[in-house]
Amino acid sequence: MRIGIVGGGSVGQTLGAGFAKAGHEVVLGIREVTPETLAQPRNQARTLAEWQDETGARVVTMEEAAWRGEAVVNATNGAGSLEALRIAGTRNLAGKVLIDVANPLDFSKGMPPFLMAEYSGPTSLGEQVQAAFPEARVVKCFNTVTASVMTNPGLVPGEHDLFLCGDDEAAKEAVRELARGFGWSRFVDLGDIKGARAQEMFVVIWVRLWMVSGDPIFGYRIVR
Amino acid sequence: MRIGIVGGGSVGQTLGAGFAKAGHEVVLGIREVTPETLAQPRNQARTLAEWQDETGARVVTMEEAAWRGEAVVNATNGAGSLEALRIAGTRNLAGKVLIDVANPLDFSKGMPPFLMAEYSGPTSLGEQVQAAFPEARVVKCFNTVTASVMTNPGLVPGEHDLFLCGDDEAAKEAVRELARGFGWSRFVDLGDIKGARAQEMFVVIWVRLWMVSGDPIFGYRIVR
């Protein structure tokens, strides 16, 4: 499948590399593609020039990534996701599976971060992405584990669950199939896109568990 | 141990019955103890008159429950917890282990509920209880599972975790010991009382999981 990643940080790079390794055709979109942006140091990640060399995939504009992708991944910072997706283009997202991996975390008061007020309470970023791009088929997924576990769940020994939600059943199945390509086998479907409220709260728990243990490599399992 | 429960709803009744069955001396406090309040129908729970007959424990005022308890349980509705604990009495709580089981859920927009704005973001109910009663030794615990699982974790087959947090290590160990009496054996310590942010978010996830599955009997396991 052709996959367009929107966002060039560690999550976008890791998912892009993972999809490329799994045999998909990947393009990764950033705002401006110049020699400078490709060489720019990035927090906890390679430069995008290095990423291109390692993956064989191309860095393009956000607009081109959304246009080329049959599935599109929102791997931007949650605070800037709606703006980035507008740049990617409403028409380019229409009809597409849009995997929303973003978390609307507010680090303004230091650690631990908390959920941004405008994306919590009786709403969530996932819901607002779906509302802003009604023709996209939004699936919230992958946002509850650290980037390396997203594409390699086997890093965590033992069975653990991948959460997803969205309004479109076929889109959710498409995302499960992509996740199976990474080795995921246990899915917890949190229903329609309102489930994003729960999934985005998981990341606050995730940050807390990381803080108290010093180790971000873990997963969750719902036990019944 | 003498345990004072503050709150006569299903959570207070279930925990009170569980502690009594485990051999503790239990009193359960409500605002006004009258023949009418004891006979009053309660949402998803017995009348308190029935509860007294079944458990052999006594219903008293909130103030007496806090005064008598060596450990005190906040089993009130999260929206009213601070007020209820003020009625229970600051002096009666001083030096006591205060187990905060309450969840600040807002049902005003129907299902699913969400966390009340004043107790989410960069704060939580657990933190605000600790701040309002600085001499109490607050431990947030039991708030992430349905009442019947709190006192009977074996209802969920398979190993699952009980979360707790608080500023006082000895108080946390006292709560672990009380939980062991119910059969809990796996604990995830979320650190100081700021961990209540994570634990209170779990309940939103819990409600969602219940909604999509139709079954509230489940637990969580952190997989490493």
Strand order of the largest sheet of chain A: 3-2-1-4-5-8-9-10
Number of domains of chain A: 1
Give the percentage of residues in beta strands of chain A: 15-25%
Under CATH, the topology of chain A can be stated as Rossmann fold
Helical fraction of chain A equals 25-40%
Distance between the termini of chain A: 35 Å
Description:
2 copies of one chain form a homodimer. Chain A is 39% helix and 20% strand. Chain A is an alpha/beta fold and 224 residues long. Chain A has one domain (2-213): NAD(P)-binding Rossmann-like Domain (Rossmann fold). The first copy, chain A, has an 8-stranded mixed β-sheet, sandwiched between helices. At the A-B interface, strand 7, helix 10 and strand 11 of A face strand 7, helix 10 and strand 11 of B. Strand 11 (219-223) of chain A pairs antiparallel with strand 11 of chain B, so a sheet runs across the interface. Chains A, B: InterPro entries: NAD(P)-bd_dom_sf (IPR036291), P5C_Rdtase_cat_N (IPR028939), STEAP_metalloreductase (IPR051267). Chains A, B: This is NADP oxidoreductase, coenzyme F420-dependent. Chains A, B: One of its GO terms (molecular function) is oxidoreductase activity. Chains A, B: Residues 2-104 form the Pyrroline-5-carboxylate reductase catalytic N-terminal domain.
